Amino acid sequence: MRRTDSEDLDVTDTVPKSGPAYAVLATRLRERILSGELQPGQRLPGDAELTAEFGVGRSTIREALRSLASQNLIQTTRGVTGGSFVSAPTVGHISAHLETGVALMAAAETVTVDQLMEVRNLMEVPAAGIAAFRRTDEHIAQLRETIFDPTDAQGPETFTKNQEFHLVLLRAAQNPLLELITAPVFRVLSGRFGRDHAPDGFWTCVDHDHRAILDVVADGDSMGAMDLMRKHLDHLGDSYRQMDILR
């Protein structure tokens, strides 16, 4: 006999009642995705299979899939070849979610400027050293493209180039986790204080530091890159603390 959606929460359901049926189903599928049992690009089991395994109806399945889609764990397409497929992870998507969480913590003052800068020091200083070893000619060319003239009128382009310098340097270390973890932190710091609130001399200092770091990275000087990045982050920290007081 065909099961109806109204029977989703019937006591005969085989999904444990540790929460709404759709949430439990979503958790089960999420575990399979994160464990690698369901691989990126792989189609999820169809409605009939999920009903047979978990004893739930289509409305529960739809809600579970919506929940997984909201976490960017799956993508659903329509058509003859459509269905729900495990998403392929990207640094951009994951980093964006992490940035949202860090921004909320900063807004709620759960973390301080000093704590945010501490994370940057822990990640970006050694990353600069690794980048000096692993950078390619393309990375150096990309870093050069981010250099700007601090005497020009400041605007969105300068702000973007400042961020891109740090992103390219993280990518030059050729470890995607460095960008994933670190980029949200400096984006939150930059967004929190805004490009229009920088103290006098801020952009001149940034330009000087970036050019110096670029030179030693291009030379393959790992120790020099770490030393200059540490000093650069100290300069940024001083400015951010000053702006934080004035907020």
How does this model look, in words?
The protein is mainly alpha-helical. Helix content is 65%, strand content 3%. It has 10 helices and 2 strands; from the N terminus they run αααββααααααα. It has a two-stranded antiparallel ribbon with strand order 1-2. A hairpin with a 5-residue loop joins strand 1 (74-77) and strand 2 (83-86). It is elongated and about 65 Å long.
Please render the helix and strand layout as text.
Elements: H1 21-35, H2 47-54, H3 58-70, E1 74-77, E2 83-86, H4 91-107, H5 113-134, H6 137-145, H7 156-172, H8 176-193, H9 202-218, H10 222-246
Antiparallel strand pairs: 1-2
Which keywords apply here?
247 residues, mainly alpha
Quick summary:
Helices cover 65% and strands 3% of the residues.
